[in-house]
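In response to the reviewer comment on reproducibility (Comment 2.3), we provide here a single inverse folding case reported in full, input and output, so that an independent group could reproduce the run without further information from us. The C-alpha cells appear first.
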C-alpha cells in the first residue's frame, strides 16, 4: 500500500528537520496548525515511521526524522522544485503571449514599471521576443515615463499611470492562471 503524505504532515516534517528539540506548542506556532492537530499528526507520523519521539521533560520532547522521514522530505522537496520551475516557465510564456498580442495590436513602445521577480520574468520574455520596431525599457517610477508607451506594471504598489495605456501584469496573469480570461 502506497502512503501519501498530506501538506500538513510535510509542514511538520520540514519544521522538525529544522529543529526537532521543541514543544508541540512551538511546532503549532511555526506551522500555523492548531495544537491538537499537531499532536494528532505527530502521533500519525510516529506510527507510520517518519519520525521518532522521546520525552525530554514534562513539556518538551525531541522529534527525530527517521531515514524514511528524510527520504519523504527529499522526495517532496524535489517535486516542489520542479513544480515551481514549471510554474515559472508557464508564467514567462503567458507574459510572452501578452507582449505578442499587444504588438499585433500595434504597440511598439513598452515600459515595464516596477522591480522584483515578475520584472525579471518580463525581462526574459522581452529578450525572447524580438520584433521589428519594438522598444522596451524598465523603470522603477511612473513619473519617469516621457512619452506615450504601453505600460506593463509589475509592482502591486503602482496602481495608475496618467496618460498611458496600462496593463497590470500581476492581475492579468492571475486572470489567466485562474481561468477567468477566455481566449486571447
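Designed residues, in position order:
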Amino acid at each position: 500500500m502506497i502512503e501519501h503524505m498530506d501538506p500538513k504532515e510535510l509542514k511538520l516534517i520540514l519544521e522538525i528537520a529544522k529543529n526537532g528539540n521543541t514543544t508541540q506548542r512551538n511546532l503549532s506556532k511555526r506551522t500555523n496548525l492548531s495544537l491538537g492537530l499537531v499532536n494528532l499528526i505527530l502521533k500519525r507520523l510516529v506510527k507510520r515511521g517518519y519520525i521518532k519521539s522521546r520525552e525530554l521533560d514534562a513539556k518538551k520532547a525531541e522529534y527525530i526524522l527517521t531515514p524514511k522521514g528524510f527520504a519523504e522530505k527529499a522526495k517532496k522537496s524535489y517535486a516542489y522544485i520542479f513544480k515551481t520551475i514549471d510554474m515559472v516557465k508557464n508564467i514567462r510564456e503567458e507574459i510572452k503571449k501578452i507582449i505578442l498580442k499587444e504588438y499585433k495590436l500595434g504597440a511598439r513602445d513598452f515600459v515595464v514599471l516596477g522591480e522584483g521577480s515578475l520584472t525579471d520574468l518580463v525581462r526574459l520574455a522581452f529578450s525572447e521576443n524580438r520584433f521589428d520596431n519594438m522598444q522596451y525599457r524598465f523603470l522603477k517610477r511612473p513619473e519617469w515615463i516621457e512619452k506615450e508607451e504601453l505600460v506593463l506594471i509589475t509592482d502591486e504598489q503602482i496602481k495608475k499611470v496618467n496618460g498611458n495605456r496600462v496593463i497590470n501584469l500581476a492581475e492579468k496573469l492571475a486572470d489567466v492562471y485562474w481561468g477567468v480570461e477566455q481566449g486571447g
